[in-house]
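Customer escalation, tier 2.

The customer says the design service returned an amino acid string that "doesn't look like it belongs to this structure." They asked us to rerun it and document both sides in this ticket. The original structure tokens are below, unchanged.
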């Protein structure tokens, strides 16, 4: 238990760098690493990274990053010129089969987690190490932290998984059972090119040679293959700071909130920010949060961390930069008013309303299941996936009347709908949007600096089966263990998990829900494979005994 007191770590050490240090794994493989440590005879806590991103690949950050460019900057990892002077050693490891480490790369696998375990224990044994190890980093570096934490390395004391998917089926490969084609395929092929066509080809000629993309497509239902590729929450007991991004729908948000709600750790913290994938981690404010966390758990500095609320949320108010931080005691917020907005069909066949009162009269509206492109339905063509996210209006939309007052929505969301199709299956893409009084959409800044809407959710109707033990009224948990095919025209009830969000919809604005058969606005790069059965007609039911609704976490306004 931390016992010393102090203001926190201040810069006081010079930097020593050891390049291409060999770390021997349990099977004899030798992985290459760089060590950045304070120039001192003392012992220091260590922050260990492992990935396939090449430790020697220089990252030249954008000019507006709050950390200055330097020759040690590496994508999504802590900056040695900031951390080492404050009394931390950093170890960057080229994962097996990547960079300068020989072997066969297998990102986010049980084998990679074992290598990470061995790297952590190696760092703890070094003469310059205090024996207390932490892990940190963004995206890849966060995702693999969940997996190594499953294995409980004895020297791993605390971790900061910053924007990291925690379930390689639900968070990464298959959203609601629909394959995340755009990101998964392009990510793997992109890094294969970096290794086979770039500088590292001589040191790892077999790099990225595993049929990795095929394995993800082959394992299109959840099962044993994914067991070691997801966080096992009952085994994760160490303190962690889980940082998500409201803009990270499609990769880096769900895992971070699931961690806070389900992990066995007694000391867990949740932070959710917004914007790009890299600015918050390197911001002065973000680094201060990270340093306080590691100072407490790795150095024993009593900085009051555990006396503070465990949740820190950036509450958005429409448009990037229009937001404010707020501390909370729990997630979801206890004061939430879970509010049903019912789908009400209108005169327009593809547009309706979101209303508070359930429509008494049964109604329905139908739309094409294909999301037809300009080339028509070409499900066998490469262009049918390339054009996803850039299609004309499709599906149906529902919006509120102009809001009478500012309305905050913060928390998980769910769409409960009655649907039918003339085909054997049906894909539902739900998008929550914010429109101003002039009918102009208010976008947020996405992780790749692209405009994005408020929130997104997905479900393939044949995978509507729920895990009843893990499902919550506001967050369905789909088993994805088998397919329940649709019968033509037969209505079924589905619950679509929409990833959490935070937005204050201003007075006079409208909340709009799009329900579409394919990726809608602001989806790229997390676009999906559209199955070849999507050639018929889909139907949404509204009102009566088949009332469909959107459940929103409305946060009451504080009265002065």
């Amino acid at each position: 238990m931390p016992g010393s007191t102090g203001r926190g770590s201040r810069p006081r050490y010079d930097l020593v760098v050891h390049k291409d240090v060999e770390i021997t794994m349990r099977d004899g493989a030798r992985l290459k690493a760089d060590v950045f440590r304070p120039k001192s005879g003392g012992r220091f806590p260590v922050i260990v990274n492992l990935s396939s991103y090449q430790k020697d690949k220089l990252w030249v950050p954008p000019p507006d990053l709050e950390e200055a460019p330097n020759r040690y900057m590496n994508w999504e990892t802590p900056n040695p010129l900031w951390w080492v002077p404050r009394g931390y050693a950093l170890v960057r490891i080229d994962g097996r089969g990547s960079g300068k480490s020989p072997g066969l790369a297998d990102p986010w696998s049980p084998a990679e987690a074992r290598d990470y375990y061995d790297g952590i224990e190696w760092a703890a044994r070094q003469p310059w190490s205090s024996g207390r190890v932490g892990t940190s980093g963004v995206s890849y570096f966060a995702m693999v932290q969940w997996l190594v934490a499953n294995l409980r390395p004895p020297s791993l004391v605390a971790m900061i998984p910053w924007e990291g998917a925690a379930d390689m089926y639900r968070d990464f490969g298959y959203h609601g059972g629909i394959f995340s084609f755009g990101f998964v395929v392009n990510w793997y092929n992109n890094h294969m090119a970096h290794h086979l066509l770039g500088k590292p080809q001589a040191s790892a000629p077999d790099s990225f040679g595993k049929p990795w993309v095929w394995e993800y497509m082959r394992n299109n239902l959840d099962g044993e293959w994914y067991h070691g590729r997801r966080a096992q929450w009952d085994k994760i007991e160490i303190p962690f700071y889980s940082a998500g991004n409201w803009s990270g729908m499609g990769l880096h948000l769900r895992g971070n909130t699931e961690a806070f709600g389900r992990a066995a750790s007694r000391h867990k913290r949740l932070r959710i920010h917004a914007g790009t994938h890299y600015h918050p981690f390197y911001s002065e404010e973000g680094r201060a949060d990270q340093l306080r966390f590691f100072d407490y758990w790795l150095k024993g500095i009593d900085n009051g961390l555990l006396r503070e609320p465990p949740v820190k949320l950036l509450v958005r108010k429409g448009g990037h930069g229009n937001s404010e931080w707020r501390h909370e005691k729990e997630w979801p917020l206890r004061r939430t008013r879970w509010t049903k907005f019912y789908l009400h069909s209108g005169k327009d066949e593809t547009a309706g309303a979101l209303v508070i009162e359930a429509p008494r009269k049964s109604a329905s509206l139908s739309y094409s299941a294909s999301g037809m492109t300009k080339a028509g339905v070409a499900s066998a063509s490469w262009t049918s996936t390339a054009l996803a996210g850039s299609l004309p209006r499709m599906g149906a939309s529902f919006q509120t009347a102009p809001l009478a007052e500012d309305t905050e929505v913060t928390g998980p969301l769910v769409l409960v709908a009655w649907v039918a199709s003339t085909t054997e299956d049906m894909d539902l893409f739900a998008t929550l949007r914010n429109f101003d009084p002039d009918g102009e959409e208010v976008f947020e800044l996405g992780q790749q600096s692209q405009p994005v809407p408020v929130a997104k959710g997905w479900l393939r109707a044949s995978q509507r089966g729920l895990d009843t033990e893990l499902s919550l009224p506001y967050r369905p948990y789909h088993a994805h263990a088998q397919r329940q095919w649709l019968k033509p025209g037969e209505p079924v009830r589905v619950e679509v998990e929409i990833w959490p969000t935070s937005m204050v919809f201003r007075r006079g604005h409208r909340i709009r829900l799009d329900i579409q058969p394919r990726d809608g606005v602001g989806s790229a790069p997390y676009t999906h494979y559209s199955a070849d059965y999507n050639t018929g007609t889909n139907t949404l039911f509204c009102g009566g005994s088949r009332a469909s609704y959107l459940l929103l976490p409305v946060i009451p306004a504080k009265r002065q």
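Tier 2 assessment: The sequence is consistent with the input. The longest helix spans residues 110-125. The first strand starts at residue 4 and ends at 5. Sent an explanation to the customer and offered a walkthrough call.
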